[in-house]
UniProtKB/TrEMBL annotation, chain A:
GO terms for molecular function: ABC-type transporter activity. GO terms for cellular component: plasma membrane. The lineage of its organism: Bacteria, Pseudomonadati, Pseudomonadota, Alphaproteobacteria, Rhodobacterales. InterPro entries: ABC-2_transporter_component. This is ABC-2 type transport system permease protein. It is found in: Cell membrane. Coiled coil: none annotated. It comes from Aliiruegeria haliotis.
TrEMBL record, chain B:
The chain crosses the membrane at residues 21-40. It comes from the Bacteria. It comes from Aliiruegeria haliotis. Keywords: Membrane, Transmembrane, Transmembrane helix. This is ABC transporter permease.
Length: 248, 70
């Protein structure tokens, strides 16, 4: 068990360093921070609302993550397969689950770094007024969980194909479905013909609904189970896919 | 009996083409995900932490006492 955990650490270190070996990390961080700042202060009319909080940032995060996280996740496995390093990786004395976990944790840590770099927004709202910092912290926790879920799904899809573009498009479609399942347009359309339990079921599986509740400052157990199960199951399927590819 | 069935199942899985196994894993994962969340929404509903500074999602002791007295 200890050797497997140290293998996770080794894979984590290799993957995390790989982000900074290319301009990918810098491009991602610049694009993410520029979009987050623009959406928070200008698109959402931060100064017109006359309210010092980060509601606007958290309202836009699911849509930013929808595009940016598949861009991180698409390369996790597809790049290894395209460049042929997957064979090398699979012949190493490391269990597939340790590789999956290491790669995922590296991507998640990188996303956490990007989120942490939005701290000037937090300082700004604290300078302008007296926001509820408990709500802001809960929002960041929710954002981290949502990022983990999107990344786990993208990594799983990336393991299924060697083409990064296909991995990216499929990941965007799946995460888009998970986000939009809870919006009024979809639920309103469903209410017209679908039974009540189906409408409620679809709403309960929406990332947006669960994330919104956390951003209100309410951390609920079903929400933690939702994100935890989404991450856990996507990683299990990812490991199964890698094991199957290795076996066949 | 259970072990025999398990061996039969693993042999059957071993004979399946890779694409079918991917499909099966994804379908099983979806069922597991939905079941787990249905269970959590029913069994764990109400287990929550109110992290707002003013505890806006928590019924105060005064309100609780008032409601109890009704």
């Amino acid at each position: 068990m200890n050797s497997s955990l140290s293998s996770v650490g080794v894979v984590f270190g290799r993957e995390f360093r790989a982000y900074f070996a290319t301009p990918l990390a810098a491009i991602f961080l610049v694009v993410f921070l520029a979009l987050a700042g623009t959406m928070t202060f200008f698109v959402s009319g931060f100064f017109d609302r006359n309210s010092a909080d980060l509601t606007a940032l958290f309202a836009w995060l699911p849509w930013l993550f929808l595009v940016l996280l598949p861009a991180i996740g698409m390369r996790l496995w597809a790049e290894e397969r395209r460049s042929g390093t997957i064979e090398l990786l699979m012949t190493m004395p490391v269990k597939p689950w340790a590789i999956v976990a290491g790669k995922f944790l590296a991507g998640w840590a990188f996303t956490a770094l990007a989120l942490a770099m939005t701290f000037p927004l937090w300082i700004t709202v604290n300078w302008l007024g007296t926001p509820d910092n408990g709500v802001i912290l809960a929002g960041y926790l929710g954002a981290l969980l949502m990022a983990g879920a999107f990344l786990a799904i993208s990594a799983c899809i990336s393991a299924l194909t060697r083409n990064q573009v296909i991995a990216f498009i499929c990941s965007v479609i799946v995460t888009f479905l998970l986000v939009t399942a809870g919006i009024d347009v979809v639920l309103g359309g469903l209410r017209g013909w679908a039974p009540y339990w189906l409408t409620e079921g679809v709403a309960a599986l929406s990332v947006l609904n669960h994330f919104e509740r956390i951003t209100f400052g309410l951390i609920e157990m079903p929400t933690l189970v939702f994100f935890g199960s989404l991450i856990g199951i996507a990683l299990i399927v990812n490991t199964l896919v890698v094991e199957l590819k290795k076996a066949q | 009996m259970i072990m025999e069935r398990f061996h039969a199942l693993t042999e059957w899985v071993g004979r399946q083409p890779r694409r079918r196994l991917y499909g099966l894993s994804i379908a099983l994962a979806a069922v597991l995900f939905v079941s787990l969340n249905v269970f959590a929404s029913r069994a764990l509903d109400g287990l929550r932490a109110d992290v707002t500074e003013a505890r806006v999602w928590t019924v105060s002791d005064g309100t609780r006492a008032l409601l109890t007295g009704l």
